[in-house]
Amino acid sequence: MICSDFHPFTKSSDLLGLQQPAMSYFSTDIFEGEMAHARFYDEEIRKQIPKCHYRKYTISEIINSIIGSGFTLERFDEDPSWKNEKLPGEFTAIARKR
What we know:
Number of domains: 1
Number of strands: 5
Structural class: alpha+beta
């Protein structure tokens, strides 16, 4: 399994400029927003894309879900934010089914 996504640290600040709300890193709130790549479409198309409901997870929730699903985590990497390379922006987890 390869899982690559926005780093949960982005919960506490819009570090990537994705126009998403900031919240506590440990928040379990569900919020409504655009799909992750909607801002890259023309405005006419963007208005037609339905909103999504999100719940942002912590790193420990992500890693524990991988392990709890019967995978062995082989590698976990964090990459810097596009806007501030001193802060995390994305992560990649590589795991193998036992």
